[in-house]
Amino acid sequence: MTLSVQRKKIKYAVLFVLSGIFIAIDQWIKEMVYVNLSQGESVSFIPHVLSITHIHNSGAAWSLLEGKILFFVLLTMMVICVILYYLWKYIEKSNLMITSLVLILSGAVGNLIDRVKFGYVIDMLKTDFMDFPIFNVADSCLVVGVFLLFLYLMFMERQENRKE
Fold it and tell me: Which residues are catalytic?
């Protein structure tokens, strides 16, 4: 086995462990909220900034496409397949791109678990200083991952293509 193949295997292992950690944190927090707060119940976490509010969301942000669970499950499974393909194909590319894909993968899997398990996603993080949809750790992974991917595509991919 060549060193390059060994390095790739190690990198894949690290990426999937990292993704597993994000998914585990998301699922653990959701379980704590599910067990300890009634649906609709809220407790202040950081006064006037962030509260923990237990809600069930059968749609996307702002409850868009509410009740379309099968649609979201199928869409998420397709997204996961695309991400796995890109991780496989571009494992040697920019660490920023790989990190963004791992975060998107983690968020997608975290919310997919809820949709399959419950038929909805457990959301709990509520910003008290502005009107914003209640979200969860998986949603945070998705948003940060998409933002990092956007940065990569806008600024770094061009530089990498020039070098090649």
Answer: 123, 139
